[in-house]
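COURSE: Structural Biology Practicum
ASSIGNMENT: Worksheet 4, Part C
STUDENT ID: 0417
INSTRUCTIONS: Below are two proteins. For each, the amino acid sequence is given first, followed by its structure token string. Answer the questions at the end about the second protein only.

PROTEIN I
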Amino acid sequence: MTAATSLKEVLKMSESNVTREIVERFNNAFEKHRPEDLDDLIGENCVLENTAPAPDGARYEGREACLAFWKGIASSADLVFKAEDISVMGDRGIIRWQLRWSEREADRIRGVNLMRVRDGKIIEGLGYVKWG
């Protein structure tokens, strides 16, 4: 630690590293269709706000409800997720993604998940999409 680096900055960097690892593992579960990889990532008091139905999306509360919803998506071989970008800032993670459900160009959407991680577990996932 240099004189210019405070303990708070070091802790924030460490927190960002943990957040990045968790968010990347979360995203990989969807890209690789491995729902079982989500088991160790979701916190007990997790809150999920889905992208649909508009305008606010369905809300899921608690580890089991969030895990069941996300596992259902991750297990679908018909859905192809691809991360466009993953960014982290402390306990917050942002996943910009694209979802395809066929080879047709029109059969895709782009979206973003705003994630929050505490103690190495996802405690919040807010999803948003661009609809045409």
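PROTEIN II
(use this one for the questions)
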Amino acid sequence: MRAVIEAAFDRAREAELIDRLYADGLVLCTLVAVEDGRIIGQATLSRMARPSNWACLAPLSVRPEAQGRGIGDRLAKAAATSEHAEAVVVLGDPGFYTRHGFLPAPRGLTSPYPVTHTLVAGRAAAVALDYPAAFG
């Protein structure tokens, strides 16, 4: 899976995040897309520090040669409807994620990251987001 993440982002930072989340026991699930017995995409959901019943989608990645075929779309939709948490938050492109069940952050939600790119699926509420330490 590390190879998928590094290929998708062309760097190791996101793969190192996943390593830290697994080491801290915070990964709730990893959704995978498989083609010809090979993982070509993944989306990882990890437990937020606060609210602790929320999950964070990070990262969602698809191998470059498999991009543009709807794999990221299917992974995003599956993450948005996950039953692993009351809500799923993602920091990303609103134009992409709003097509897959995520909504802009509700008024009053605060985050250490830009709220303009914070989206929520599930039972969104005006809360203070606190990401796991692995996010830095």
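ANSWER KEY EXCERPT:
Q1: The first helix runs from residue 2 to 9.
Q2: The longest strand covers residues 38-47.
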